[in-house]
Design a protein that fits this description.
41% of the residues lie in helices and 19% in strands. It has seven helices and seven strands; from the N terminus they run H-E-H-E-E-E-H-E-E-H-E-H-H-H. Strands 2-3-4-1-5-7-6 form a seven-stranded mixed sheet, with helices on both faces. Strand 3 and strand 4 form a beta hairpin. The radius of gyration is 17 Å and the shape is globular.
């Protein structure tokens, strides 16, 4: 019996190495006071994806709340780092190494003040665009060559500081656009898993009228 358990463990490890999961990470800040902030749109996207897949964030791993699901015979690990935004790299790098995730099978979801509200932009790599969570992840992974999905939250009004703007809740007027963007983000992420990044970019990049 101990030999059989050892064999199962070895087979499980071999399967995990041959078919590693997709790691889908939404960035945000933990805590009720941040839940509806513009800066937490990454959390909102993975929450929406988890609900779509019937998964729940029921455990903590590598300083992140984790939900696990399957889609088209692929294993998915959904993550919400609990380190606060500026230290997101601690959690993401830990999950990448623990699950042995190739960088092309991970994607990070962030807010972007330089994109109009509700616009989606997926890319295979690139800089941080000043987003501090992305800065942390790039520093910890030692590369910027990994997929990301940016969700536009629009520019701050007037002379408002961007750091203050992203920590404000979405307005009631914005929430209709936000809801549509989150639904499209879920579809884009599933397209990424099922058909690849190029297919997802071609289908969903841009504002709603340019997407699916």
């Amino acid at each position: 019996m101990p030999e059989l358990r050892t064999l199962f463990k070895r087979l499980f490890k071999m399967n995990a190495e041959i078919n590693p999961p997709f790691l889908i990470t939404g960035l945000g800040n933990p805590g009720r006071q941040y839940r509806e902030n513009r800066h937490n749109v990454g959390f909102m996207a993975v929450d929406r994806l988890a609900a779509h897949l019937g998964a729940s964030f029921a455990r903590m791993e590598s300083k992140a709340m984790i939900a696990k699901a399957d889609y088209k015979s692929q294993r998915l690990v959904l993550a919400k780092p609990q380190t606060f935004m500026n230290l997101s790299g601690q959690s993401v790098s830990g999950l990448v190494h623990f699950y042995k995730v190739p960088l092309e099978r991970m994607i990070v979801i962030t807010d972007d003040v330089d994109l109009p509200l509700g616009t989606l932009r997926m890319r295979p790599g690139g800089g941080s665009a000043g987003q501090k969570g992305m800065i942390s992840i790039i520093e910890r992974l030692g590369t910027q060559d990994f997929p990301r999905l940016r969700i536009g939250i629009g520019r701050p009004p007037g002379r408002m500081d961007a750091a203050a703007y992203v920590l404000q809740d979405f307005s009631k007027a914005d929430k209709e656009f936000l809801d549509a963007a989150l639904e499209r983000a879920v579809l884009a992420l599933l397209e990424f898993v099922g058909s690849g990044l190029d297919a997802a970019m071609n289908k969903y990049n841009g504002a709603e009228q340019n997407g699916a």
